[in-house]
Amino acid sequence: MDDVVSLDTLAAVAGVSLVAALVVGLFPRLPVPQVVLLLAGGILIGPDVLAIGAAHDVRVLADVGLGFVFLLAGYEVDLRLVREDAGRRAVVSWGVSLLLAAGVVGALDAAGVVEAYLPVSLGLTTTALGTLLPVLRDKGLLRGPLGRHLLATGAVGELFPVLAIAVFLGTQGRLAALASLAAVGLLAVVLARLRRGVSGGGRLAGVLGRGQGETAQITLRGTILLLLTLVAVTDRFHLDAVLGAFLAGMVLRRWVGDADPVLESKLDAIGYGFFVPLFFVYSGMGLDLHSIGEAPLRLLLFLVLMLLVRGGPVLLVYRGVLPARQRGQVALVGATALPVLVALAEIGLRSGTMLPENAAALVGAGAVTVLLFPALAVALDRRPPRSAAHSVAGPVGTPPPTT
Q1: Where in the numbering of this chain does the Cation/H+ exchanger transmembrane domain appear (predicted)?
Q2: For residue 397, how many C-alpha atoms fall within 13 Å in the half-sphere facing its CB?
Q3: CATH assignment of 7-383?
Q4: Choice between 79 and 376, residue whose per-residue pLDDT is larger
Q5: In this predicted model, what pLDDT tens digit does every residue of 187-246 receive, in sequence order?
Q6: Of 118, 177, 256, 393, whose CB is crowded by the most CB atoms within 10 A?
Q7: Do residues 315 and 327 lie in contact, with contact meaning Cβ atoms separated by under 8 Å?
Q8: CA-based Rg of the chain, rounded to a whole angstrom?
């Protein structure tokens, strides 16, 4: 019965999603990202406030929403960034963050404050790229050198922890996690061969070409099938599927190319139009406010550690490349986390290695980072408003088309 979707709760979630979008549209200067309004709306309609519905009422659809978060984040990543200076610095800064997290959490573990050493350590190194993309896009922060460093920092901060979690904390074991990686690699090879076959012409090429629009939407349907298959590989949503969704997004971007130039806008429409907001409202509904209220200092501790462990190394590694103001923006963006923290808390609670109060405080701290850090990063931006010329810019990481 846990997998049954309540239509009443779903209608309330859709209402929160619409109100959040209207508030952002009516008050464009509001220094609060839309995702924060979604989380707050989820708390409002959740069991701790109005009790309109519970998180488990829409868990199945929220699983798809989390998959969309990572699919869209992976689709946005250009792997060529890793070979550039921005990518190399992002890897170095994440490595330093991991070492700092290991030391700090080791001390907390010795003091008896935490039990789940590895989940908490990895949680302090995560970056919520999928969560940040709408904010960074809307505010025009993904252009130029700053945009490349922001994207590289976010991509590394999301991919590396997810990869480590899937291998070391995956509920199906390391062998299954490595098998899922191999499956995604095989998918990339198959898609590459298929792309060569399609580009060579023939009946299949004609079918795909004619079926990209109108009622067929073949490419979009294939993408959704891929995502749903990844989500359905287990009876419950595991991080292995999240990793697959992120990697699948990167594979899709490389494979689709010019085959369907508007696929990204279609994915944005279905993802940001329904599934992604649903996931964040679901996260707000599931937030354990009682545990946070009983131990508020734990939330504050994790919040400070996220900023110092994840943002601190950025200030040093990017020294000499970006001015102090932009280094501060990258540090704030890098320290923003939530989706992976939700998954980490679920893994820790399910395995019995994470204290309930720590799980709630970790997710609560992630919610606060989403509330504060992107707004502060935007406030640090002093460039003129985004002009109409930038509305035709290409994908993130590529310069706008010349005329």
Answers
A1: 19-376
A2: 23
A3: 1.20.1530.20
A4: 376
A5: 656 655 555 555 555 554 455 555 455 555 777 777 777 667 766 654 444 555 666 677
A6: 177
A7: yes
A8: 21
197-200 long-range contacts, CB within 8 A, separation 24+: 198/259
Q: Nearest Cα to 166, choosing from 174, 157, 158?
A: 174
Residue 292 in this model has a pLDDT that exceeds 90: no
Cβ(171)–Cβ(347) under 8 Å?
A: yes
Which residue pairs, CB below 8 angstroms and at least 24 apart, start in 260-269? 260/212, 260/219, 260/220, 262/212, 263/219, 263/220, 263/223, 264/75, 264/395, 266/217, 266/219, 266/220, 267/68, 267/71, 267/72, 267/75, 267/220, 267/223, 268/72
C-alpha dist (Å) from residue 57 to 11, 45, 129, 212: 11, 12, 27, 34
Q: Give the relative orientation of helices 129-138 and 144-168 as an angle to the nearest 10 degrees.
A: 160
Cα–Cα distance measured from residue 337 to residue 120, given in angstroms and rounded to the nearest whole number: 13
The conformation of residue 319, written as its DSSP 8-state character, comes to B
User: Which residue reads 């590694």 in tokens?
Assistant: 317
Least confident window among 17-21, 122-126, 189-193:
189-193
d(CA 317, CA 300): 26
